[in-house]
Sequence to fold (290 residues):
Amino acid sequence: MRTWITNAGGNAVRMRITNAGTGHRPFGKRSKAGRHFARRVAAGSNARLLACVLAVGAGLVGATSAWAQAPDGSGSTHRAASEANTRAQTLSSPRGLRLGVDLTAGRPFLRGDAAVIWDRIGSVGIVEGFGVRLGYDFGRLGLTLTGELSEFDPGDRAGAGIGFAALLHWRPQLTIGRRFGSRITAGYVRQGYGGIDFVQGQFPAEVVEGFGSRPAEAGNVYAIGDGVRFGFGLEALTSLSFLRAVVDASVDAVTFRQASLEGFSYSLLEPGWSFYPRISVALELHPFSR
Fold:
């Protein structure tokens, strides 16, 4: 409660009387000291809030810097992945001379007159072979010349196959786990099968020009054809850039237009197209790789 007391000089003095029951001041305006204390508390709270914000910001900056510089952090992982990808792209674009050997296996599906000739002996099974390669790489583009020898045994009669191919390779920017590079192959192929002796009258004279109706004589028989090869392969991208293993899956499409009997060549009346799917595993040497 408030009261006014007149002093000896006749002046009125306002006094704040404390509630006798509670010991607290009645509600009213704060004193000057209280207002100064409140302002100091508010200023201190603002200062502490600003300090907290600055500390959090500094912590974020430090964490970001540590993430980028940590040897085992994600930043290092991203750099290592980028370097590995660059190395894989470099290995998949070799330059220089290339030498190689390969093992092949496949089954020819003969059509036309070539099928008629060999059906007189028996069916053709799996053909296994061996080849040598000589090539040159210009980066993603390469050239390969191959020579091939293979078994050829229709009806369990021992024969042989011989082949030659001139191929172009293109290496697209496609890698598998940065460990295997890919390459696409296309080119010309020439094949010959035979080395099998036919007895008198066994060779089908009706499929060639020049025999007429007389039976063919006995002799050694070959069939020769020309065609194209298409394939896709994977080559291992190892730390040994001068040596790599290659696996190719390809298909030869060949038309046999000639047959040879005892050294005499004849044209087939219906050459047709024969198909030869095959798998090859090769080891290639790049002696001047860089």
User: Anything to note?
Assistant: The first strand starts at residue 2 and ends at 6. Helices lie at 32-69, 74-91, 112-119. The chain has a mean pLDDT of 75.
